[in-house]
Amino acid sequence: MTNIKFTAIWTARDDTEYVVYHYVKNVGAKTYTLSGTDNLTGTTDSTLTLAALKKTFTGFTYSG
Predict the structure, then answer these.
(1) Which of 12, 24, 48, 57 sits in a 20 to 30 Å window from 4, CA-based?
(2) What are phi and psi of 23, to 5 degrees?
(3) C-alpha gyration radius of the chain
(4) Nearest Cα to 22, choosing from 33, 8, 7, 6?
(5) What's this model's pTM, rounded to 2 decimal places?
């Protein structure tokens, strides 16, 4: 049996598509309603923060 060595070089894709769904809480209820989506592109295996995806809605306050 011979020893075989493989070497791989990986490059993260910078065109990974993903969708962010924005929901708002229904007033006086425990349910949420979908209020929009954002189709975005990013780098595979990167980290996102909620603040980076924050969307402003008139009459609502963000609480992360």
Answers:
(1) 12
(2) -120, 150
(3) 20
(4) 33
(5) 0.65
